[in-house]
Predict the 3D structure of the following.
Amino acid sequence: MSNPHEPIPAHDTYHPYGHNGGAYGRNQDGAGANRAALIIHTLADIAAGFLGLWILLYLLEANQGNVFVGFVHGMADFLAGWSQDIFTMKLEGLRVFLNYGLPAVIYLLLGHGIAARVRRL
């Protein structure tokens, strides 16, 4: 277009950040990978959040009969079932912290690492 006031043809789309640029100049081909990475990242954060919340509720001696506390405890047991009793020490608070904290850290590291790898695809 030599004339800046010339209308854009109907079949031509406007790409302010490059030929195939979508939002912020990113190529639309990577949108699926970005979405998958976001889902992986979010799931890892949610899993670690449940585990961290259970550690906090346990250390603060939350009412075990409460429905919310029971739900969080159930989710934490499900998520950390593979790592239970790795650490067996006499201090109950430290045992809970380590047995639920280790999977939280692993979920965060793996989830964020995998999400970063998927974003590069």
Helices lie at 31-59, 67-79, 92-119. Confidence is low (pLDDT under 50) at residues 21-25. The chain is about 60% helix and 0% strand. The CA atoms of residues 17 and 23 lie 8 Å apart.
